[in-house]
Amino acid sequence: MKAVVIKGKGGPEVLRVEDVPRPEARGESVLVRVHAAALNRADLLQARGLYPAPAGVPADIPGLEFAGVVEAVGPDAEGQAKVGDRVFGIVGGGAQAEYLTTHPRTLARIPDGLDFTRAAAVPEAFITAHDALATQGKLTPGEAAVIHAAGSGVGTAAVQIAHAMGCLTIGTSRTAGKLDRARALGLDVAIVNPSGEFAEEVKAHTDGEGAPVILDLLGAKALAENLKAVARRGRIVVVGLLTGAKAEFDLNAMLARRATIVGTTLRARPLEEKIAATRLFAASVVPWLERGVVKPVLDSTFPIDAVGKAHEHLASNASFGKVVLTL
Q1: Band of the pLDDT at 143, cuts 50, 70, 90?
Q2: Which residues pair with 322 in a beta bridge?
Q3: Domain boundaries 126-263, CATH class
Q4: By C-alpha distance, which of 38, 91, 92, 99 is closest to 68?
Q5: Is the pLDDT of residue 237 over 80?
Q6: CA triple 268-273-276, angle to 5 deg
Q7: Phi/psi at 139 (nearest 5 deg)?
Q8: What is the pLDDT of residue 196?
């Protein structure tokens, strides 16, 4: 089968498209013919040697999300999936290939009106956003949520999910144009923050109370402002480190707000936790997709043979929503 293979450590130059052995559906696994796979910043980091794949998945084939068709079912997976099912889901790696194997309960059914390309733009962004907001952040209808990097894949998904929950959505970005586009997805308050300051504006839109939930994809440089912007007993959920991993931490500020800081990632979680997150996504978000309440945000598509150009585009920070490879 054809697959993206990382050859060394670096940027797009270390990516190759090669023929590799096709996996087989064994035990409690299914074989999926992948038709499209989205890119994530984790792929950029993995190519640089900074984010190795977890045990049990291909070490040199990137890709965390996909859309395709079940082609074979392992003997212990009978009844959990069937040949011909149109499915999408997340994996620890190996999605940027024509075939992959995975546990059937990490799959969700693709709504009938969604093609493979747009479906591939859904799983990582929407499962991450839903898990971070609803499960980790305990966001409830009517609360305010700050969503950093609102024009990113996770950001655009989080804006839509929070809006669908009836929440006040507050988004930040260094780019006014991305925030303007996010308004069409349900963004209520747009904060352009090239200087990194946003807390006072968040308070101005929350009667001085701050936001109960902050979804942070920025990391280090946002920490101090997050602690100013979070409501009392609020939750800061960190899912990305775009501005770095190390920052000075004002414990007094956290204690004064009685705030909770939660760090979360999907890739390294045990199988049962990934299954749980996927099942919640299937129950809560897929019906919204079916009714058009939320939708995938597709920035651009590239054929698998142009994977290097796709990486360059994602790394440029020019994208709004997801970059998808077609196979």
Answers
A1: very high
A2: 298
A3: alpha beta
A4: 99
A5: yes
A6: 140
A7: -65, 135
A8: 81
Query: In angstroms, rounded to a whole number, what is the distance separating the alpha carbons of residues 169 and 211?
Result: 10
- How many whole angstroms separate alpha carbon 135 and alpha carbon 234? 14
Residue 261: name the closest of 152, 137, 88, 90 by CA: 137
Domain ranges within the chain, ordered by starting residue: 2-122+269-326, 126-263
Instruction: Measure CA 143 to chain center.
Output: 22
Are 68 and 117 spatial neighbours (Cβ–Cβ below 8 Å)?
no
Burial label for 220, CB within 10 Å (0-12, 13-18, 19+), is middle
The mean per-residue pLDDT over the stretch 8-12 comes to 96
Question: CA 116 → CA 28, 67, 296, 314, distances in Å?
Answer: 24, 6, 11, 20
Q: What is the pLDDT of residues 19-61, one digit of tens each?
A: 999 999 999 999 999 999 999 999 999 999 999 999 889 999 9
Selecting from 3.40.640.10, 3.40.1620.10, 1.10.260.40, 3.90.180.10, what CATH number does the domain 2-122+269-326 have? 3.90.180.10
